[in-house]
Amino acid sequence: GRTLSVSNISVSAGPAATVTVDPISIQTAGNSFNATVRVFDAVGNPTSVGCGAGQTPTGFNLSGATASAGGHGGTATNPVQPQTTTLVSTGVYTASGITLYRKGPNNLSFAACGAASAASRSVTVNEAALNAVTLHSADDSTLNHTAQVRCEHSGTGTSVTCTPMYAFFWDTYGNMVGGSSDSCDNWSWNNRTLAG
Predict the structure, then answer these.
(1) Average pLDDT value for the chain
(2) What gap in Å lies between CA 117 and CA 121, rounded to an integer?
(3) Does residue 92 have a pLDDT over 80?
(4) What pLDDT digit, counting tens, does each position of 52-82 carry?
C-alpha cells in the first residue's frame, strides 16, 4: 500500500461556545481587583471568533453583585462592575477595576461573544476597616442603635453594677467587622451621670 503524507494544514478555532473565569482570591470591601475571562470554542480551543476585533468582546456583560447594606454609620454602596475589558491574547480578556462592597459571597456572572451560557464566579469579600461602634443592651446586631445607652444598674456608692452591654463593630459600608461573638477588650466611660 501507499502512504500519503499531507503537511501545512492550518486549523482555525471555531466560534465562541463557552466562557470561563479564572479563580479570584478573597477581596476586601472597597478594594478594586481584576478578573481574567477566557473564551473557548466547542472543542476547547481559545477563540475570538464571534467576539469582534476590539479590546472588549462583543456582548460582554459583567453582573451579579449587589450593594452593601449600609446603616450603622456606613453607606449603602453599589458594586462597580465594568463593562469593558482589555484583550490579552486570543480568547483571553482582563476585566479591570471590579469593586465589591458587600461582605460575604458575591456571585459574579460573565457573558461574552454570544456563548450559550455565562460563566459564574463566586468572590468572597471581607469587611473593610473599622468605621463605627454601636452599643445595645441586647445581644442583637439587627436592632437600631442609639448614641446613648442607659445602664440599668444595681448597687450603691462605688459598687454599681450595670446589666450586660453589647458592642457591634461596622465598616464604612455597613458590613459587620468580625463576628457577632467578638468581644471588646477595653471599655472607657465618659459623661457619667446620676439620675436625680
Answers:
(1) 86
(2) 13
(3) yes
(4) 989 999 999 999 999 999 988 899 999 999 9
